[in-house]
Design goal:
The chain has 128 residues and is an alpha+beta fold. Helices cover 31% and strands 38% of the residues. It has a 6-stranded antiparallel β-barrel. A hairpin with a 4-residue loop joins strand 2 and strand 3. The longest helix has 31 residues. The radius of gyration is 19 Å and the shape is globular.
Length: 128
């Protein structure tokens, strides 16, 4: 009897922790839907490195408040590069692309200052 109770307790703890981790990730997604400070630091925090990533249509965006990094597949139809100059690291660009977090399809929208490789960004849920 004691073994059955302990086994049942272990199953409950496992299930609850699994559910809570999913819940925590859902809360993270809700938090990242609000505009907040972001940066692009990989492979390095320079306009030149960012331009190379954009050339591959793939960038890493870090939300500074949570430390969450998402990999974004750019959708050039929605990106705006004309307001920035990568050679002089001046101006701002808008990057828009798709990512996935906790098996949820999301769109990432960021406005980045090329001088600092920092800016404001947020996530949007998209239809499956």
């Amino acid at each position: 009897m004691k073994i059955k109770v302990l086994s049942l307790l272990a199953i409950c703890v496992f299930c609850c922790s699994f559910s809570l981790s999913g819940f925590a990730l859902d809360l993270l997604i809700e938090r990242l839907k609000l505009p907040q400070t972001i940066e692009t630091v990989r492979p390095e925090k320079t306009a030149k490195a960012l331009k190379e990533c954009i050339g591959r249509d793939y960038v890493h965006v870090t939300f500074k408040s949570t430390g969450t990094e998402v990999s974004v597949q750019l959708d050039r139809r929605y990106c705006i590069f004309s307001n920035g100059n990568f050679e002089t690291a001046r101006g701002k660009v808008r990057l828009v692309g798709d990512t996935k977090l906790n098996s949820v399809n999301l769109r990432c929208v960021v406005d980045i200052d090329l001088a600092t490789c920092e800016g404001i960004g947020y996530l949007e849920k998209v239809a499956d």
